[in-house]
């Protein structure tokens, strides 16, 4: 064996697995293979001047490299079982929360100390929301911000680099079963290991599907969330964001009974492009440092789409809608809410005359030509519902960027140890379809590392 444990993917899942192995099994030889760059080499070429939108780099620095998709994220670690994944279904609610708190402790020790922990527990907004048919989910959220999140990653890398072999810019092509253990196949050679932890995240979703097919690991997939990113003056949501930072609010539409939710709220943040398998969608983040903050708050409004037989390709459905926006807009489309409800496209002039400055250069257009009616109706209904708890949300100048898609990796069949039907082959993090967040992905890494160390 070359290694006792090989981890594929250096996102939060992989990093925290490596970290915990070093704590509980320091004698084990551990390697991490990562398709993207080392942290200090990760740079997105979009500078807002010469390069204004995604140029489709071979390895997307936003999604890949040490820190994974989380590296330039807003660093919001939500400690909750209410959203962010279904890890608790495998390991139990208490254990899942304990592990998320443990991850939080590590983050605090490695540079996050002093970052505020917000909580929705006992807040008066819960009542205000319910009175308006909106439901505020319970969570504690540690907001590191993109800047402190980066510092924590730097410190974790410094702590791991002499104890773990890191192979950057080394995509793993496939995983093979050996008589004992596994072979991790890279372009130049194969590496053998006793145990293999696969933590390839969302960017590795297609790869994961293929490998599960090759190894005949059962999977299921039937959900995708589609919507827009809303951007408005920070003052509109300030009463909520100052107290809660992030409010996860769920609404059931009157027309179709669909669930629409707010997601990834970024007070005084910026809207950004996201490149998933060559498709440009939209996302957002914000900084802890006041000097880097903007005058706007952004958040996603997503409609959950669950499909039933015979249709199985929920991600393909989301991709087609995102491709449509890329086709019409060359990337992300932006539209004023007022233009959307008047049935007209936004133009560069209308955006320029608005009382809000967009933080992302996107193509002014018409989202009703992109989003299915049912989804668009749900989003419009929710904007009016939010307007009751945050007046100003339904203003004409509120900007909607589309599309935002939350692709869910197909869910891989694993047991309570997050181990596949093959002993010693674990699948964790967003790549498993079980987690969709920093804290759940990190907790899954800790869980598996402890199992291996045992
Ligand atoms: C812009 C943005 C903002 C976000 N903000 C938040 C937030 O505030 N809070 C939150 O909870 N979540 C946020 N998320 C989601 C969060 O980043 C993910 O849930 C989390 O990173 C998942 O961790 P992971 O380790 O499972 O996967 P990832 O972080 O995706 O890491 C997987 C890694 O595996 C590598 N990989 C893939 N395939 C291979 C292969 N074949 N060989 C080798 N390596 C491979 C990838 O390059 C990647 O680095 C955000 C995401 C984005 C993109």
Relevant terms:
alpha+beta, 8-stranded mixed sheet, 7-stranded mixed sheet, 12 helices, 22 strands, binds flavin-adenine dinucleotide
Structure explained in plain terms:
This protein has 454 residues and is an alpha+beta fold. The protein is built from twelve helices and 22 strands. It has helices at residues 12-24, 88-91, 93-112, 124-131, 145-160, 205-215, 234-244, 314-329, 337-341, 348-353, 373-389, 438-453; strands at 3-8, 30-33, 76-79, 117-119, 135-136, 140-143, 165-167, 174-177, 182-185, 190-198, 219-220, 223-233, 249-252, 259-266, 270-276, 279-285, 296-306, 333-336, 363-364, 399-407, 411-412, 425-427. The strands form five sheets. The chain has an eight-stranded mixed beta sheet. Strands 1, 2, 7, 8, 9, 10 and 22 form a seven-stranded mixed beta sheet that branches. Helix 1 (12-24) links the parallel strand 1 (3-8) and strand 2 (30-33). The longest helix has 20 residues, at 93-112. It is globular. The two termini are 20 Å apart. Flavin-adenine dinucleotide is lined by residues 8-14, 33-36, 62, 64-65, 68-70, 73-76, 78, 84, 171-172, 199-204, 207, 264, 272, 274, 283, 285, 429-431, 436-439, 441.
């Amino acid at each position: 064996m070359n290694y006792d444990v090989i981890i594929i993917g250096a996102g939060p899942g992989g990093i925290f697995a490596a970290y915990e192995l070093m704590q509980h099994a320091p004698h084990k030889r551990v390697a991490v293979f990562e398709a993207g760059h080392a942290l200090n080499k990760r740079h997105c070429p979009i500078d807002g001047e010469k390069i204004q939108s995604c140029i489709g780099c071979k390895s997307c620095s936003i999604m890949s490299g040490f820190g994974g998709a989380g590296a330039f994220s807003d660093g919001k670690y939500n400690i909750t079982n209410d959203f962010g994944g279904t890890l608790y279904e495998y390991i139990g609610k208490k254990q899942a929360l304990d592990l998320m708190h443990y991850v939080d402790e590590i983050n605090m020790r490695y540079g996050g100390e002093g970052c505020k922990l917000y909580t929705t527990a006992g807040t008066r907004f819960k009542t205000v929301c319910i009175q308006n048919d909106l439901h505020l989910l319970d969570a504690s959220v540690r907001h590191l911000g993109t800047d402190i999140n980066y510092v924590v990653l730097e410190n974790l890398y410094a702590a791991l680099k002499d104890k773990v072999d890191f192979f950057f810019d080394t995509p793993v092509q496939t995983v093979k079963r050996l008589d004992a253990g596994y072979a991790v196949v890279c372009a130049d050679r194969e590496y053998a290991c006793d145990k293999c932890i696969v933590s390839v995240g969302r960017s590795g979703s297609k790869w994961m599907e293929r490998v599960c097919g090759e190894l005949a690991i059962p999977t299921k997939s039937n959900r995708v969330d589609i919507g827009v990113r809303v951007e408005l003056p920070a003052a509109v949501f300030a009463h909520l964001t100052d107290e809660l930072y992030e409010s996860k609010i769920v609404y059931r539409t009157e027309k179709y009974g669909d669930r629409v939710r707010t997601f990834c709220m970024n007070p005084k943040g910026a809207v950004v492009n996201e490149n998933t398998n060559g498709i440009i969608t939209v996302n957002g983040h914000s900084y802890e440092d006041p000097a880097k903050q903007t005058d706007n708050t952004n958040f996603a409004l997503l409609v959950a789409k669950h499909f039933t037989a015979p249709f199985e390709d929920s991600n393909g459905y989301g991709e087609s809608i995102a491709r449509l926006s890329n086709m019409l807009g060359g990337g992300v489309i932006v539209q004023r809410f007022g233009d959307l409800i008047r049935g007209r496209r936004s133009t560069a002039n209308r955006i320029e005359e608005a009382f809000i400055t967009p933080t992302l250069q996107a193509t002014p257009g018409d989202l009703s030509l992109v989003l299915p009616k049912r989804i668009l109706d749900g989003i419009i209904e929710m904007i009016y519902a939010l307007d009751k708890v945050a007046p100003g949300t339904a203003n004409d100048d509120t900007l909607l960027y589309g599309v935002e898609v939350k692709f869910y990796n197909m869910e891989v069949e694993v047991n309570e140890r997050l181990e596949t039907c093959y002993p010693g082959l674990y699948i964790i993090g967003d790549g498993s379809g079980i987690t969709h967040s920093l804290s759940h992905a990190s907790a899954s890494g800790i869980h598996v590392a402890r199992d291996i160390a045992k």
